[in-house]
Amino acid sequence: MPIYEYNCEDCGEAFELLIRGEEPPTCPSCDSERLEKLLSLPRIHSEGRKQRSLTAAKKRDAALGSERVRAQREYELNHDDH
Predict the structure, then answer these.
(1) What is the pLDDT of residue 7?
(2) Are 14 and 5 spatial neighbours (Cβ–Cβ below 8 Å)?
(3) 51 and 25 share a domain?
(4) Are residues 7 and 33 in the same domain?
(5) Given this model, what pLDDT does residue 82 score?
(6) How many CA atoms within 13 Å lie on the side-chain side of 48?
(7) Which domain covers residue 72, as residue numbers?
(8) 1, 21 Cβ separation under 8 angstroms
(9) 11 and which of 30, 41, 68, 80 could share a cystine (Cβ 3.0–4.6 Å)?
(10) CB contact set of 11 (below 8 Å; sequence gap of 6+)
(11) Helices and strands in the chain, H and E counts
(12) Could you tell me if 25 and 54 lie in one domain?
């Protein structure tokens, strides 16, 4: 039982469906049978890709963290009640 990706030609909804037997697929939003089957590409997971993703996430988090520290410091300087 394969899972296919579709785009409804009537309402524009993009969705995935598990196809069972011979029944024709229908859009979950509008029940239309006018569907375009989309090309599904496999995702490739590897240690190298995982490591690059972790490195990018750490770099992004460090940048966001330093931006938050800078914003907090700026707020404190501009809102000194003493």
Answers:
(1) 94
(2) yes
(3) no
(4) yes
(5) 56
(6) 1
(7) 45-82
(8) no
(9) 30
(10) 27, 29, 30, 32
(11) 1, 3
(12) no
- In total, the chain counts a number of residues equal to 82
Rounded-to-integer distance, Cα 34 and Cα 39, Å: 16
* Token pair in block for residue 3: 């899972």
Residues of the chain short of pLDDT 70, as ranges, are 1, 41-44, 81-82
Same domain, 52 and 79: yes
Tokens of 43: 């995702």
How far from 2 is each of 10, 22, 82, CA to CA, in Å?
Answer: 24, 12, 67
Q: Are residues 23 and 51 in the same domain?
A: no
Same-domain pairing of 20 and 49: no
| Structural domain count of the chain | 2
Indicate if 32 and 64 belong to the same structural domain. Answer: no
